[in-house]
Amino acid sequence: MPNNTPNPADAVPSATHVTEEQGAEIFAEKNRIDGLNRIRQLVFGSLDGLLVPLGVVSGVAGGTGSTKAVIVAGIAEAFAGALSMGAGEFISGRSEAQVQQTEIAKELAEIRDAPEYELREMAILFEHEGVAPEDAARLANTLVHYPEAYHKTMVEKELGLQVGVSTVKIPEALTMGISYIVGSFFPLIAYFFLPIPQALPVSLFLTVVALIVVGIIKGRLANLNLFRSSLEVVVVGGASALGGYLLGTYVPRLFGY
Ligand SMILES: [Zn+2]
Which residue, among 246, 219, 220, has the nearest Cα to 234 in the 3D structure? Predict the structure, then answer.
């Protein structure tokens, strides 16, 4: 007997109809977003790698007038800074992930110890997202049969955390350290080729160019207006460098140096 009533299930592609190719596409998108998360380390590392060495080499250049002193201080600072920033990112990212893992473990223990309460909680979480009460209960009752999906949904919805986040923050630490080293190249390079009076303005100029590049990269990755993104980086970076220069010049004088 022909039935012309549309079946609502037809409107939604069933999970079993997702091809392997589509599955791969979905995960590729997630990996792309994970990669974009490197933006914080990239911007932080390169900005620090530009501004701290700029302050150090300009200060040493102005204070000693010695190219050798500038280059020794600049190289030492670049490596010390990169290693310290990389280590800092590793430890801080790791602590954050460890704290989150503890919270997730607590939540999973609650699911084990008070399953009825947590099931009701899951339905309430769905209701808060605008799902009708009877549908919310149905969703929760369905999900509870799939522990992995249930745990993941509970952690994401209730705690706002992601399960399975790595506590070994090596890519993050490397991005930070390498960005710092690359950044420190710009304020330092001129001193290898020019005497101090000419090297200082070139160093400043190259640092500003690099700040603009950081702004453009940040703007492209985050899909922002490139001009505003660069201006923001140059203004914030410039203000910080100027502050460092003034303090670095006048504070030693207070102590008679
Ligand atoms: Zn819960």
Answer: 219
Q: 154 CA distance to ligand 1 centroid (A)?
A: 6
Tell me whether residue 38 is in a domain: no
Distance from the CA of 102 to the center of ligand 1, in angstroms? 14
pLDDT, average across residues 248-257:
83
Rounded Cα–Cα distance for residues 155 and 226 (Å): 36
Provide DSSP, 4-62. -SPPHHHHS--GGG--HHHHHHHHHHHHHHHHHTTHHHHHHHHHHHHHHHHHHHHHHHH
Q: What is the pLDDT of residue 8?
A: 47
The tokens describing 118, both together, are 């947590």
In the reported structure, the alpha carbon of residue 113 is separated from the centroid of ligand 1 by a whole-number distance in angstroms of: 11
pLDDT in tens, 197-243: 999 999 999 999 999 999 998 898 888 899 999 999 999 988 888 88
Identify the three-state secondary structure at position 88: helix
User: What's the average model confidence in pLDDT over 33-60?
Assistant: 88
In angstroms, the Cα distances linking 254 to 57, 249, 250 are 20, 10, 7
Task: Calculate how far, in angstroms, residue 17's C-alpha sits from the geometric centre of ligand 1.
Answer: 31
Distance CA 244, CA 204 (A): 13
How far, in Å, is the centroid of ligand 1 from the Cα of 230? 43
pLDDT score recorded for residue 2 = 47
Q: Which domain holds residue 107?
A: 45-254
**Residue 201 covered by a domain:** yes
Asked if the structure places residue 75 within a domain, the reply is yes
* Max intra-chain CA distance, the chain: 101
Domain count, the chain: 1
- Determine the distance from the C-alpha atom of residue 178 to the mean position of all C-alpha atoms in its chain, rounded to a whole number: 14
With respect to residue 12, please indicate whether it lies within any of the assigned structural domains: no
